[in-house]
Amino acid sequence: MIELQNVSLRYGEREILDNVSLTIEDNKIKAVLGPSGVGKSTILKLILGLIKPNSGSILIDGTDITRLKESQLYPIRRKMGIVFQGNALFDSMTISENLGFFLRENLNLNEEETRRRVREQVEFAGLEGYEDALPENLSGGMKKRVAIGRALIFNPKMILFDEPTAGLDPVSSKKILSLIGELRKKNDLGAVLVTHIIDDVFMVADSVAVLYKGQIIFDDDTHKLHESDHPFIRSILSDKILEQ
Ligand SMILES: Nc1ncnc2c1ncn2[C@@H]1O[C@H](COP(=O)(O)OP(=O)(O)OP(=O)(O)O)[C@@H](O)[C@H]1O
């Protein structure tokens, strides 16, 4: 379980998160919905311990990571996989090499086990036949599927998605969202999905926190979003456009 407790974060003079509290349960999909620049990616960086808050605690399975040293963070990060907005694939490596890279770098597995895990992700992501292709020869949706496969390679408990459908066409977006839904069913995984696209939230998220002007203005089951009378939520439900 991931818990942000009274987290505040400033970049210079600018307050990005103001006393934000958020709980992300195992085996559930939690969306963090908000307009561009509101601090959604910042929340993911905080969860991974890449940045520290100015105040507040971040608990991962009960351990406050804000107090840990860099070396103590490795086993905590291993519990989570991340899918970056731009996928962060290595352009000069094939799909198989991309999938296996972190395994080969970080775990002392024999080559047979590494290949088995890579094959598992190739199958899960529907990338059979593309093992030897370079990322530049893949569509946006396929690259995203490689990034998801790579995030799963350490068998994490939780996967963090930064805007997983941004820039994808509607059909590819739907495929990616179904894959995210399947992850929980098949692998019992939890997920955090940060997005500014409200349709993504309705399609896969069990619950949603809405981040607006540094604060969480809604945090409940997704279907209860319709009951909110907050003007910002009313406006996004009617326009489906998130602007500051
Ligand atoms: N290292 C940094 N130093 C200063 N400002 C930063 C830094 N990183 C992010 N910001 C600013 O903090 C705000 C929140 O950034 P963040 O990337 O978390 O937003 P976001 O909600 O994920 O939006 P987007 O989806 O557009 O990336 C933005 O205004 C951004 O410009």
UniProtKB/TrEMBL annotation:
Domain of life per record: Bacteria
InterPro entries: AAA+_ATPase, ABC_transporter-like_ATP-bd, ABC_transporter-like_CS, P-loop_NTPase
Stored SUPFAM superfamilies: P-loop containing nucleoside triphosphate hydrolases
Gene3D superfamilies: P-loop containing nucleotide triphosphate hydrolases
Official protein name in the record: ATP-binding cassette domain-containing protein
Coiled coil start-end: none
Entry annotated with the keyword Nucleotide-binding: yes
Keywords: ATP-binding, Nucleotide-binding, Transport
GO molecular function: ATP binding
Keyword Electron transport: no
Domain ABC transporter, first and last residues per copy: 2-238
Native organism: Prosthecochloris ethylica
